[in-house]
Amino acid sequence: MGLDKKLNKSELYIIKGMLSIYNNFSNLLAESQTDELTGLMNRKTFDESIVKLYQHFSDPMSQEGDQAPCTWLAIIDIDLFKHINDKYGHLYGDEILIHMARTLQQAFKPTDLLFRFGGEEFVVVLKDQTKQECMQSLENLRLAVERILVNEGEKLSVSIGATRFDHTVFHITLLDHADKALYFSKDNGRNQITFYEDMKARGLVEEEELESGDIDLF
């Protein structure tokens, strides 16, 4: 069939049907990978892609140190979000989550990975940044969130826990490191950023953990 030949009705019908099937499949795939409320990638997507994240973002041991660009994982939690839900209702809480997602998208690079983990908790993977650059990115977010006003003039804030990607520990341990840093932020006044590595240097966490090479889960 020449390129200049017009398609008949049957051929057009088949092509239209195939395009419809493709669009439906694409929509279903997108829905399974993203959070319905915020449009960010969801926890399921993070869990499914963590092995690929490790393969892509693992930092060579020679790159350890604050001055070397590497990859960071941060958990971000909206402070006192239950209070907002209880005082203004869940619909207003949803609006805050949507606004938070947009603020995250504006604060980080397009190459950074943003996830909603559920509830008021978000995760960001920042790549190719020194510790100082990562700190500045997270601080920019913290300040941007402070400018979000809740009803009656209340201000919003976030607590953040961050850690460097380390391919020598399990991904569950990596998340635990960021989570410990997050709760240190929350337990010490909220509205601040804590790095797990700083906690470790100050002797605030115990040495633990199996290394990822000890047991092969995948």
From TrEMBL:
Cofactor(s), names only, from the UniProt record: Mg(2+)
Coiled coil: none
Source superkingdom: Bacteria
A Gene Ontology biological process term: negative regulation of bacterial-type flagellum-dependent cell motility
Pfam families named in the record: GGDEF
PROSITE patterns: GGDEF (PS50887)
Annotated EC: 2.7.7.65
Enzyme class: transferase
Reactions that this protein is recorded to catalyse: 2 GTP = 3',3'-c-di-GMP + 2 diphosphate
Domain called GGDEF: residue spans: 69-198
GO molecular function: diguanylate cyclase activity
Signal peptide annotation: none
GO (cellular component) term, any one: plasma membrane
Protein name as it appears in the record: diguanylate cyclase
Native organism: Maribrevibacterium harenarium
